[in-house]
Amino acid sequence: MGRSYIVEDAVEGYLSKICSQVADPVTGLLIGQSSVQRDFVVMATRTPQKDESADAEKSVDKEWVSEHARQVSRMLPGGLSVLGVFIISESDAKDTLTTLRQLVFSVEDLISSEQLWMPAEDDVTDCVTLHVNPKTRKTVCRTFDVKDPKSVAKPADWKYQSGVCSSWATVSCWLSIDLVVPLTDNTTCTRNMDDYLKEELKVWAQQVERGVCLIDGKKLPEESEIKTGQAKNVRQTYTAQLLITPNKLMVPDVVQGCGGCVSIRGAIHSRAFLHSNKPKAKLAEKLLKRDIVSTVATRVQMLLEDLQTHNEENKGGRQTEQFFPPHRVFCPVKPTSPLSVCDYQFRDEGLSEMTDRFKEMLDIDAAEEDLDATQEMIAEVIESEASAEASTETAEPLDPERNNYIGVAMATVVVLLASAASMLYLSDV
Question: How far is residue 328's CA from residue 41's CA, in Å, rounded to a whole number?
């Protein structure tokens, strides 16, 4: 028997609306949560239109759909993920099967390339494809095992149900971060810096995975329920703490020529959602840890993309610059649902730009007052340029709990993730 998908009935209305408004084909993403027993689909979002000729719109652009999926994946907190793709087309379902297979594998490859955590044994590797005929409204649901290149389509059960977005538990935490990444002398562009940061973040992600997670102040057995005697029909919310110990099995301190270093410090807000009347501690811990790793990696990547543009505009010279990585802003999936999605707001952006992106990427009509921008406040600059430059010249005592690198002619990048948004100092010494 194939997998079973329990789908929020609002998704049926959304797909029907597309069927009645536009010509085919239309592609999009299906978003929700997978579990060993069944999957829950809470929303669907169509692929944004690409500015090309009308003839090009008749074909499916695999790269464009995959890039949309990558951007959407960054906007999903822990517990929510891109489960698969849909296509609305008058073509027979059998004729679109090859296209859907190519799309779902391409989407998974791009999304997984940004994930820094190690797969778990209980991770679901089946992704869903849905074909909808705009005239008859007939749906055909199939799945593919995206970890098996030879995977063939398997039938799956697609069932609409009301209230799928209602019964979710929320686990949230704040985490302090302190990472130092040495850069070699030949790290002359943000692309090289990206490689060094990704490798160091992978090491840090492993420390996060080994961390001890306390839920409402207690270390719960993996298979125990995270219940606190909360009343029925009341939103289940839990506060977690993650205790991370430094890696003791480290290489000895080394002396090497360094072109600089990147220091990431501060605090971030993380949250995860669990669909279950009896949410287990093991799942809550896994989803929360993955969200922590994902949100930090996303911000670093967005900052590097912004920094690359800055460097192209400001080449040469010794300088001290300040940059502000984005902070996290949440938006509810539905007004009455505990579920939310997120986006990342740079210092020079307003909430109106957030609502525009939620509409473009997730097709959510959100007002500015619906957004929650209070979890991470924008950092204020209290340090002058002179003092910032001086701070990079101040020798700090070596920390016995982590590797120390001694370098020459160092340029220092300090990313300060306050409990607010981030601040970055770039200095050539």
Answer: 24
**Cα end-to-end distance, the chain, whole Å:** 64
Closest Cα partner for 179 from 145, 154, 203, 213? 203
The answer to whether 309 and 424 have CB atoms below 8 angstroms apart is no
What letter would DSSP give residue 333?
S
Strands 422-428 and 411-417: antiparallel
Q: Determine the Cα–Cα distance for residues 401 and 393; give it in Å rounded to an integer.
A: 22
With beta carbons less than 8 A apart as the criterion, state whether 89 and 131 touch: yes
> Radius of gyration (Cα) for the chain, nearest Å?
23
Spatial separation of the C-alpha atoms in residues 423 and 299, rounded to whole Å: 12
For the question of whether the overall pTM of this predicted structure is more than 0.90, the answer is no
In the chain, DSSP finds a helix count (H) and a strand count (E) of 8, 19
Strand order in 4-8's β-sheet? 154-155, 139-145, 126-132, 81-88, 26-34, 39-46, 4-8, 157-161
Element (DSSP H or E) covering residue 285: helix 281-313
Q: What is the pLDDT of residues 29-57, one digit of tens each?
A: 999 999 888 899 999 999 998 876 555 55
What residues pair up with 428 in beta bridges, in sequence order?
411
Q: Exposed, middle or buried by CB within 10 Å (0-12, 13-18, 19+), for 403?
A: middle
State how far the Cα of 176 lies from the Cα of 403, in Å rounded to an integer: 19
- C-alpha span between 273 and 380 (Å, rounded): 31
pLDDT higher than 80, residue 311? no
Q: Identity (one letter) of the amino acid at 157? A: D
Other beta carbons within 10 angstroms of residue 177's beta carbon come to: 17
CA angle 269, 302, 72 (to 5 degrees): 75
